[in-house]
Amino acid sequence: MGIVKIADDLHEEARRASAVMCRSINAQAEYWMKIGMLAEANPTLPFHEIVRRQLAEAQVGAAALEAA
InterPro entries in the record, alphabetically (predicted)? Predict the structure, then answer.
């Protein structure tokens, strides 16, 4: 674990988003970093495809979620 300094306004955005997404502030920041890294590594993939692939990799029934 390390310490990452971010701007106060970005921290506030992470705090508000974490409340909506039922994550801790740290978990929200980690999520944004992971998605951002995946988006940079796969610039032609839309967000929903990145998430779908992550769900499939984790063996979450993404097909069932898409139908809902």
Answer: ParD-like
